[in-house]
Design goal:
Layout lengths: L2 H19 L20 E3 L10 H7 L9 E5 L11 E3 L5 H7 L9 E9 L17 H15 L2 E9 L4 H15 L4 E5 L2 E10 L8 E11 L2 E12 L2 E9 L13 H11 L1
Antiparallel strand pairs: 1-4, 2-4, 3-6, 4-5, 5-10, 6-7, 7-8, 8-9, 9-10
């Protein structure tokens, strides 16, 4: 990759990540009750409670620092969640996909907690002729490969929601139905920033829990084809939704792997 291509990749990656990272750039979440007030990154609703877990109970189940080797797990700060009212889709049936991409809970959960899980880039190897006083083609190649490698990082917005009896199953079914109905694409946006989804493909990459689904969502940003990964795992009345993007893949429409280590770690914590 030449220097101009590296810069182009960086710019395209930033454009592609804007929609997803909007979930960490303001907005509002609903507060909990006085006896069980959710911490930052956790929200409670007035939806059906039944067997639903509280935000405090979800906090014990959601991924924490050290749970996934080679990944950084961060809590979202106050007001970092994107409210549903800020997300749009030109087709009503596509709203669950638009919401899931941005970490907006599907349906009406009793409580939700969120994390941003980011892969740590590999440290580049020291090769070439550094220290010789001359810059060779090998040095340039190593530098460009190091830059490209630094962009080969996958970030995942993890939303863990608890529902009243049957709510999680319905939310998973609604998301699956939306993916099928909108497989040909749809137009949407967040806070006035447009986003075009050009296709949704079902993938057989995720297992676990009582049921699991996964899709590659292809979007178009600044004329570039940008793949995103979307996965959901349901365990009882708890639903884990994973929305992932990769900075390097955003540059030229290259595909990237599902963050199965992140998904598997969260699924294991659900029991």
């Amino acid at each position: 990759m030449r220097p101009t291509a590296v810069r182009r990749t960086a710019l395209a990656a930033c454009a592609a990540s804007l929609a997803l990272l909007a979930a960490a750039c303001g907005g509002s979440g609903s507060g909990g009750g006085a006896e069980d007030k959710p911490k930052a990154g956790a929200t409670a609703s007035t939806g059906p409670a039944d067997t639903a877990k509280t935000p405090a109970e979800l906090e014990k189940l959601v991924l924490a620092a050290g749970d996934v080797e080679g990944h950084k797990v961060e809590e979202l700060g106050p007001g970092d969640s994107t409210p549903a009212k800020d997300v749009s889709a030109d087709k009503k049936e596509c709203e669950p996909i638009a919401y899931a991409q941005l970490g907006v809970p599907i349906g009406d959960p009793a409580a939700t907690v969120q994390r941003m899980v980011t892969q740590e880039p590999e440290k580049p190897q020291e090769t070439g002729t550094a220290g010789s006083g001359e810059i060779t083609e090998e040095d340039i190649k190593d530098f460009e490969e190091a830059i490209e490698s630094s962009f080969d990082v996958t970030a995942t917005m993890l939303s863990l929601s608890s529902y009243g009896s049957g709510g999680a199953e319905k939310a998973a079914a609604d998301l699956s139905a939306a993916a099928e109905a909108c497989s040909g694409g749809f137009a949407g946006g967040v806070r006035g920033e447009p986003q075009k989804v050009t296709g949704i493909t079902r993938e057989d990459k995720v297992t676990g829990g009582d049921e699991a689904f996964a899709w590659t969502v292809t979007t178009e940003q600044e004329g570039e084809s940008v793949p995103l990964k979307l996965a959901v795992v349901r365990k009882g009345d708890t639903l884990a939704v994973f929305s992932s993007f990769n900075f390097a893949a955003a540059g030229g429409g290259k595909d990237f792997a599902f963050p199965t280590e992140v998904i598997d770690a969260q699924t294991e914590k659900l029991g």
